[in-house]
Amino acid sequence: AIKKVKGMEIIDSRGNRTIRTFVTIEKGISSFGDAPAGASKGSREALELRDSKGSVKPAVDAVNNYISTALSGLDVRRQREIDLTMIKLDGTENKSKLGANAMISTSIAIAKTAALGLGMDIFNYIGGGRSHSIPIPLLNILNGGLHAGNSLKIQEFLIIPVNFDKFSEALFAALDVYKTLKNLITERFGKIYTALGDEGGVAPPLEKTEDALDLVYTAIKNSGYEDKIFLGMDAAASDFYVDGEYEIDGSKKSPDDMIEYYANLANQYPIIYLEDPFDENDFKRFSILQSKLKNTIVTGDDLYTTNVKYLKKGIEEKSTKGVIVKPNQIGTLTETFQFFDLARENSIKTIISHRSGETEDNFIADLAVALNSDFIKTGAPARGERTSKYNRLLEIENNYCLEYKNKL
Ligand code: PGA
Ligand code: ZN
User: Is the keyword Lyase assigned to this protein (predicted)?
Assistant: First the structure.
């Protein structure tokens, strides 16, 4: 039974404050969960509590004054009951009373502590009877948009190591591409431009989408992985949608122009994944683009914000073949599972994802394996808050020999 729930302020990878919550049961068995934080958030995400100076003390207070009392004495293995208790205690549509950061850090700490109490790996505890496999990583190796200081409007340029027999081989091949990319940048712009963006990708002084795609694709080819590693992008297009137009590559484009724009890029480059290509309210154009690009997984992140209500709309309108799953967008693991299951039932590809502001908590690696997710998105293969997830996946593969398969 839960003896203690206690929150505290820690720092995240952007140097901002965030919340870590500890849950303690009998015999001092205790674990923690951290809340990550986004920079390019969807407008329908559950709200995090933070004061005007950036402190998350209001969320810490919510844990220590309200959540701890409500959960005291409950069986830590009853994740659903515990999450529903928090949802009821909060009582708002968007978690604005307790804060999604207070709630998700608690929800994760509950799952981790329960697993520890049972002496189980977290993925085994959560996944139970599900078959497990290692997800394919989508590695963001070139950063733009709100995650970098350059002029690129597209937020993320991803490499996707698909055709490998093992996760470790796939990841180590991605490292080669990452290093080749850094060398290309050093040659073309100078070493100072190999400085990193928020998710650990390089952020060279490029302006046009094509220039970035060209550079990353060249890195793939020069490393010899043209037939094994493919390309993806997260446009995070709500961030450059201004007054009904998209401001990109030095011009203003209408929503219909953007359909042609992406189709043209997908013709030139092996883009198998395309996240948030339009503004978060434009379900219709997601559908049009998805029906046009048969070999690309068009994916909704800001479009759905891990909320079943919006996923149902996306399913009706056949908006996307893929969904991003970010536990902190909705605030509890129970709701995250519901969202994931709805996507699965509808044969939609799942991508368990980090945020641009992360901590060393590697929970999402276990979560992705637990749910047998198709993909995981957790940044470049560099910087501790990203490597903690990759290293955990390497550890799971090493200990359990789980399969790595082409899930396209
Ligand atoms: P965020 O970006 O964490 O800054 O919201 C990640 C994403 O858009 O996928
Ligand atoms: Zn995104």
Answer: yes
Provide the strand spans (E) within 124-255.
136-143, 156-161, 229-234, 241-242, 245-248, 251-253
ipTM computed for the complex? 0.99
Ligand 1 atom closest to Cα of residue 275? 9
- Asked whether 390 and 369 are in contact (CB, 8 A), the reply is no
Going by C-alpha positions, the residue among 212, 220, 237, 217 that lies closest to residue 298 is 237
Cβ neighbours of residue 364 closer than 8 Å, sequence gap 6 or more:
327, 352, 353, 354, 376, 378, 389
C-beta of residue 187 within 8 angstroms of C-beta of residue 140:
no
> Could you give the CA distance from residue 406 to residue 385 in angstroms, rounded to a whole number?
26
Please check if 155 is assigned to a binding site: yes
Contact present, 351 and 373 (Cβ < 8 Å): yes
Q: Is 232 helix (H, G, I), strand (E, B) or coil?
A: strand
Length of the chain: 408
Cα separation, 319 vs 271, in Å, equals 18
Answer for the pair 380, 386: CB distance below 8 angstroms, yes or no: yes
Helix (H, G, I), strand (E, B) or coil at 377: strand
Give me the helices (H) in 154-208, please: 167-189
**Residue 38 Cα to ligand 1 middle (Å):** 5
Q: Is 326 a catalytic residue?
A: yes
Amino acid, res. 263: A
Q: Are 5 and 71 in contact (CB under 8 A)?
A: yes
Can you give the pTM of this predicted structure? 0.98
**Residue 234 assigned to a binding site:** yes
Task: Identify the band that residue 171 occupies on the pLDDT scale cut at 50, 70 and 90.
Answer: very high
Report percent pLDDT > 70 for the chain: 100
State the DSSP string of 286-306.
Answer: HHHHHHH-TTSEEEESTTTTT
What is the distance in A from the centroid of ligand 1 to the CA of 302? 8
Cα of 236 to ligand 2 centre, how many Å?
A: 5
pLDDT value of position 408? 85
- Residues 392, 165: contact at Cβ < 8 Å? no
